[in-house]
Amino acid sequence: MTHISKLPTLLPTGADAVYVVTGGNRGLGLEHVRQFLEKTQAHVVATTTKSPPSEANNLRLLADQGKSHRLTVVTLDLSDESSIKVSHLSCMGIAEHERT
Q1: How far apart are CA 1 and CA 65, in angstroms?
Q2: CA–CA dist 28, 51 (Å, integer)
Q3: CATH of the domain at 22
């Protein structure tokens, strides 16, 4: 596994980058979200099965640390096609907003 401290040489880290982290409300996903927010200027989309997304307490704590403008929490259930479509549209909207 690549340590995130090496990401600046491997992946875009500027404000125009957008990362989508599935399972972002706990475990490795949460740690990836935390580190992307800490070590990059990128926008991070964290997916959670919690509905509404505001129920994802760990992500809410991260947002409260002053990085909420770069963190979007999206509900995603990979077993539900409509959930996948809604999440996709949310991510596309964020990416489009970041480009303008």
Answers
A1: 27
A2: 20
A3: 3.40.50.720
Neighbours of 83 (CB within 10 A): 17
Contact (CB, 8 A) for 70 and 62: no
**54 neighbors 60 (Cβ within 8 angstroms):** yes
Distance CA 42, CA 8 (A): 11
Domain housing 29:
4-99
- pTM score, whole prediction: 0.75
How many domains does the structure of the chain reveal? 1
Question: In 3-state terms, what secondary structure has residue 17?
Answer: coil
- Summarised one tens digit per residue, pLDDT across range 10-51 is 677 788 888 889 988 888 999 999 999 988 888 899 998 877
CB atoms within 10 A of CB 100: 4
